[in-house]
Amino acid sequence: MNKAWKMSNRPDSCRKEADDWAKPFSLLIDRINEEFSPLSLQDPREDINHRLAIELKIQRRQLEKGQVIQAILLSREWVVTYYTSLMGMNLLSDREKAEGMLNSRAKSMISTESRSEESELIGIWRDLIQLRNDVAHCGMRSNPMQSGKLVTKAEEVVLRLSKIKQLQP
Using CA atoms, how far apart are residues 98 and 145, in angstroms rounded to an integer? Predict the structure, then answer.
């Protein structure tokens, strides 16, 4: 996000550097800038809501481009980031603690609980555990999800994340 921000704020400098070191890329600077400037943020650690909104955009793009594994992994990290923010925890130093809390909640939560923001997040976390394990273990599990269903579930997860909190940068 920061690199996209730097580029969108100084395309002429990037163009000159490309002219000097990789001439063919200078022809692509405007196109690259157009593609990535909506994903730019000067300091992703400072503006969490904006960061989460951009990460949702990235997840959608990954799915559009067939990068399902990357979308699943970023979705998982999105949930951890969102949960740390929701719980008032430190974005970086409390990630493992947040993952432990999510795992604990996912194991103990009864599926008929009310659909609060947190319980919806825990439900998504459960789905991400399954998706991530199927991807990470390359289907070498007793009951792996079929690839078509995996893609559909990944798309559903991103849609559900978008609905948890309508985030607009």
Answer: 27
